[in-house]
Write a structure and sequence with these properties.
By secondary structure, the protein is mostly helical. It has 2 domains: 88 residues, Ankyrin repeat-containing domain (Serine Threonine Protein Phosphatase 5, Tetratricopeptide repeat, Alpha Horseshoe); 94 residues, Ankyrin repeat-containing domain (Serine Threonine Protein Phosphatase 5, Tetratricopeptide repeat). Helices cover 53% and strands 0% of the residues. The protein has 14 helices and no strands. Helix 11 packs parallel to helix 13 and helix 12 packs parallel to helix 14. The longest helix has 15 residues. The termini are far apart.
Length: 231
Amino acid sequence: MRLKTPSSAGIGCCLIALAAIFGPMAPMANAQETSIMPITQAAENNDMATLRSLIAAGADLEARDDQGRTALLIATHRNAIAAAAALIDAGADVNARDHIGDSAFLYAGAEGRLEILRLTLKAGADLASTNRYGGTALIPAAHHGHAETVRELLATDIPIDHVNNLGWTALLEAVILGDGGKAHTEIVRLLVQAGASVNIADRDGVTPLQHAERSGYREIVQILSDPSLRP
């Protein structure tokens, strides 16, 4: 007995009939594509529509990419403020670390991602947490010249005189690794006015003032030498 092969015309009629009953099929494919996209990839693409869909569908907010980064940390790398806000609002951990010890909070501080930093602070950032160099978020912020980030962190209870693995405080890094320009000068002023110790020396016994004098940073020397600026 031979089975009849349906004609293309017959198949077409069936598809038309099904479409009339159930509607177009294309959206199903789009939904499948969205459901299989990792939340980390959506963050990498800064694809807010997909990211929101994944969050609403209950995607694992702490899923990691091959570098150990969560979607939130990836969004922080991209300075994707809306994506970071959506993830934090959904409960993403602002202290989750990647393979090199960065968290969204630590990276935002180090790289001057000010708006995301503020979001992480409101969400319970661990102020005592340290990066792979043993430094708090304040130390690289001072090093990289992010004055507004330093100002924001100094409004918290972050340890101001924490010493990292190199033997440097935020004040020492601002002087040693800074360029003596406007941003680093302002950071030194902010740190001194907030109570940072001007007497903590590096491992060779050199103080921030002595480093500033050696580098010829006159305005920073004046700030470090003025006791009226200290609380």
